[in-house]
Amino acid sequence: MQRHMALTALGGDEFAPETVYLNSASSGLLPARSAAAVTAALAESASYGTMGPDYFGAAARARGAFARLTGVPEERVALGSSVAVQSAFVAGSLPAGSEVLVAEGDFSSLVNPLAARADCTVRAVPREALADAVRPGTALVAVSAVHALDGRIADLAAVRDAARAHGALTYVDATQAAGWLPLRAADFDYVVCGAFKWLLCPRGTTFMVFGGERGEPGGPGWPVPAHAGWIAGEDPGESNYGVIDRPAATARRYDEPYAHYSYVAAEHSLGLLAELGVETVHAHNTALADRYRAGLEAAGLAPRPAPGSAIVSTPGLADAEPRLARAGVRVSVRGGLLRAAFHLYNSAEDVDRALSLLVP
After folding, report:
1. Exposure pattern of 168-178 as b/e (b: 16+ CB <10 Å)?
2. Which SS3 state, helix, strand or coil, does residue 78 take?
3. Nearest Cα residue to 23 out of 310, 319, 305, 249
């Protein structure tokens, strides 16, 4: 087995899992600081209700933390509940008859709401051919930055350039990327991120970036806030009844009502990632994945994708998942592949433990 220099877990006392947790592609671990914040918020609910004493503050701070982490203006970030809801919103903003280009086998929450538009056409092509498949008449190109199934990283620069050349919008799902893969979110018209995986937030925390070359919200190039409720008014206290006369002047006009406890935790989880730095996490995660990949290859297996991803999926090992689980190693099986995902709370010892069970 190929050996590399020791890699210790990042995050210090924030994580103490009882398992060897290699399943961040399914959901991340909650840092201790985030768990403590939720516990405190739950206690507050006994006196202040389930919206707490500062319902807007936690969401606003989480918005700012995500914006800083992804390098976009805070005014360009909307808060939501799921990738599927945001995809339905993007689908609803397209003109009738639009062609939407997607990668074959991409994540359902991204593509299915787009396909639900009966008056639009969804065309699927192989992931590696996406940029070359953009053509005149393509209205939107949608793709996951990292494929959830096997960890392949999309050539986002090529997709962006091809879309711009043909006047198409771009829609990137960063759920499997944000938190470990450096990403220029502002380069794309829409970037959505379910934050419960690599961003270490609870479910119910989702961010949408409105990037590209738009002007101020509400101007040309900005979609109608079709699903806006009271939370999306410039003054939510005046937007509870009737038609909202003054939508928020920022991307907050696209907010959904906040899952309060989720955003309480999100503020702290995102803060931890900011302290460590995405570049540091990227180097750590990919080094662990490379160590694991090398061990599998030395045993004659064929893990994928090529080095550079924090996710490693391997054919021929799917039946090993129950055995790993019994031994306290958490992975997942997707599409017949044994999928391991390496994040900041993992170490070289975690990698070697998994390999000892797979290729003894």
Report:
1. bbbbbbbbbbb
2. strand
3. 310
* Rounded-to-10 torsion of CA 296, 299, 300, 305: 10
What is the enclosing helix (H) or strand (E) of 100? strand 99-103
CA–CA gap between residue 148 and residue 331 (Å, rounded): 13
Q: Is 101 left (phi over 0), alpha (psi -120 to 50) or beta?
A: beta
For the stretch 282-336, pLDDT in tens is 999 999 999 999 999 999 999 999 999 999 999 999 999 999 999 999 999 999 9
Residue type, 102: V
Rounded-to-integer distance, Cα 96 and Cα 120, Å: 6
Q: Are strands 138-144 and 99-103 parallel, antiparallel or unpaired?
A: parallel
Sheet holding 77-80, edge to edge: 77-80, 206-210, 190-194, 169-173, 138-144, 99-103, 121-125
Spatial contact of 271 and 199, defined as CB atoms under 8 Å apart? no
What is the rounded distance in angstroms from the CA atom of residue 269 to the CA atom of residue 193? 14
**pTM, two decimal places:** 0.95
Torsion of CA 140, 215, 195, 107, to 10 degrees: 0
Helix (H) or strand (E) holding 191: strand 190-194
Look up residue 68 and give its two tokens: 């800083």
